[in-house]
Design goal:
This protein is rod-shaped. The relative contact order is 0.02. It has 191 residues and is low in regular secondary structure.
Length: 191
Amino acid sequence: SVNKTVTLASDLSVGSDVKITGNTLMSGTLSVNKTVTLASDLSVASDVKITGNTLMSGTLSVNKTVTLASDLSVASDVKITGNTLMSGTLSVNKTVTLASDLSVGSDVRITGNTLMSGTVTMISNLSIGSDVKITGNTTMSGTLSVNKTVTLASDLSIGSDVKITGNTLMSGTLSVNKTVTLASDLSVGSD
């Protein structure tokens, strides 16, 4: 039993267990060659540098920023309750499921198929560089402008007026159930 300060000018070698019930202050380096087991919290007031692997079987709580100089690999779920800012590329190899809105401040490029089971609302223009196939009904509340030929494989039903400013060529029969009013001449090239 030692009741006062012990000062060692050289190494201390202990061949069995060491039990310290009070505080321990070390002003130099603590080197441990085997496992360190803590029964309570570990509080570090400065930087921690770990050159090997780190295994944690409990929860890791971090109150400030986490900076990684290399990859982050997670074998299970990741739950983030705050905002996430990524300044690089986000690559996802499987399905992405969002329970709320997706807001993108720049262009979106999709190289595969896109399946949407809900409504698509666009507040600006839609530009499509290839064919568009719509298997259901299409409702437009604004103006439809077409710069080239329109080909219909079935009937065209219009519930209001039709205004055609250019020539109209019909190779089949024109059936009109009501009055036809012409503001100019009607020229018929055959019987």
